[in-house]
Amino acid sequence: MSRPAFLRAAMAVLLLLTAPAARAFESGRPFLDMLDPPVLAALEGRGFGFGAALGEKGDASNAALQAASPAWRQLTQTVSSDIGELRRAMEATGRRLYEVTDGNVGRVFETAWLTSPTARFGLAGVVLRLDRQDFADPARREATCGEVRLVYRLAYRFQRGGRVYASRMPFSINVVHDLPRPPDGCGVLARRFRVPEGRAGAEARAAWLAEGPLAGARGLPRQIEINAQIVRFPSGMETTFGGQAAYLMRVFSVEGEGGVRLVEKGLENTPDVARLQGDAVLRADLARFLAEQAVAVDGGVHLLPERFLATRALSYSTYGSARLANRPYAQIFGAAGEAFSGLDFAGMTTAASPAGFIERLDAGTCQGCHQSGATAGFHLIGEDERTMAPVNRVLVGYSPHFFAERPRRAAYAEALAEDRAPNRYRPLPLSPPARWEGEGVPAFLPAGLGQACLPASQRRHIAAGFACEGRAACSELAQTAAVGVAYGQCVLNEKRDEFSGQACLTGRITTTDPARPWLDRFAVTGQINSRAARINARDHTCRPPVGGAPAGLAYRQCDETDRRFAAFRPGQAPPNEICGFAGGRAFDICVATNDFANCLGGSIVRGMRATCSAERLCREDFMCQALPADLPEVGRVAGLGYCSPTYFLFQMRLDGHPDPRRRS
Rounded to whole angstroms, what are the CA distances from 372 to 5, 247, 428, 517, 584? Predict the structure, then answer.
């Protein structure tokens, strides 16, 4: 088959089989989620602003919340304490951190944003999770039909010196409301939450959501969950990792008696590593419990008792899917899983060995899911308003994992609506989309370019495997002896197939101290494609990770036909690469000014990148960025964007923003 024919066929199959994932709001089908900014703005106007979750005014600024809400003050104090503790630990190993700096040093989240008059948490998404009833604790299981979640992101907008400063930041809060079970069962809700006809406009959609899935979400929520990037080391400092970042995750129950207050909760299915490592009796108790629950663990639907749980989790990127820090069970029991060697794996559907059992457990933890198929440490980023600076605007507001989960959630809701038992199996979070027909393990689609895959050598550990589409090879980019199951990434290594944006380097991660993951080292061990000696507009060269691209970046320059998007033709599958934007020396200088609004537009150059869209997601540590609307002939590529290293977008990095204490 010729290359164009192969690409057209692969894209046609991918679009056909993944079509359900795009139907988040379609008449007659289950409502899944809402990310459209005008609809979300309308919902905030109807009382669903973040402040309402704490019993305050919905659109309150962070300064107003700090003044009025003891619960908010409690949250900011907890986050500040957590950051301070990590900061001291890092500085004890020689890693100093700075809130504002123009040096090649570590950066830390400026907690003043949480009390700033210029900042607030804006609604970024609404997600219906009927399937979450499977994880209700025993006391609630018969009374709930799942959850509805309102996800908010930290953002600021203000004027200073005649200019508008506006951006979002990598700090999200998930407000979780229960869906009470009607007397006639959850099928009643599933049918009620099918999208009706005639809801085309933002106000009409917001009205239906407010009266339907969000009708019970006006009071205090059951809990709130935070996910925040709190430390970042730039690629100039982490020259082989392409940068590093640390993320904080916490969960609080919300109680309203005698005033709203927050109570720390254990993190679902996330064990307390330090406590379990130091307590042999508790560790043996955990091993016994997991062995007894082996079938539920294998299906991804177990629920760990409170006595084992951590109340705080930190996850680390880059190469998050290959880091020991994001695998708490491997730290407790060892990656080989010898404590579970007596289990009968012949009857399991996912785990095929003790190492596979450990991987199944780790994938269900906060750290494991956080860094599996995520985008810059998040699964829901949200879409940007059109007023966002063109070079800071996200095109696709969700992660590969979120995308793959949509058809599963849709099938679950359809089963409930038809009074059928849903398929309760949960895939590993790095799995591609699947056909959800029948029970148990679904039929996984081939993983797309840049997506995670399971190398053939790992099938001895994971029975429910998945492979790459077409001629793509499943290349293991980051080897590490500390992790029992190694994933790969789908790449095209033959010269005739090479394209800009894909990974081009392999390497090895060395962990010297699991308690201090920021000291992990990465050594490049090989090059798998893009071997041109010099940058040019015809052949691909491999750009090193010091430029901010983990695993390197296949690259060629744009020529004039690329700038006009001449290769993109109606009715044909889009090429794998597109003339987007790249950083350079001017970009690095701009970053150091901590004033990106003033310099960013003139600090980037055109360069070839991987093509992306709502159905064609970017590889790990990259995200789909929008093309500026004023580019010549940009209409040829409507709905398409380009994959950028995540920290090239200022809204996905904690540093480079203006002073949160000043309004003018």
Answer: 32, 14, 9, 17, 29
